[in-house]
Amino acid sequence: MSSNESPTPAVHTVTTAPRSLAEDQAMRTKRYLVSMSIRTLCFVLLVVVDHPVRWLFLVAAAVLPYFAVVLANAVDHRSETEMTPLDHRRSLRAATPADREPLEGRVIEAPPTQRDQHV
To answer: Which of 62, 87, 89, 97 has the fewest CB atoms within 10 Å, counting from its CB?
Structure first.
């Protein structure tokens, strides 16, 4: 960094931010309901199917509640990782090769609105 450049503040990524409580509860509830729906389907198939495979439906219906509870109680571990700052200058250098010239352009002013004219 040269002496005339001012230091830029660190930019944090939001991918490590935890989900909101409502979003987390909705996701966990959905996982539990899907698991219990599959269990209900296994019970129905146990009664309807007249084949030795019906015993697999019985085993699945007996085991699924355990997995449903484990999945429903799974915690989002993204919040436990430490946030690391992102060096935006480095990512910009990687996005644009150094041998390319910067793009030049012009600023086009928007036409004034009625609200702007009354001020």
So the answer is: 97
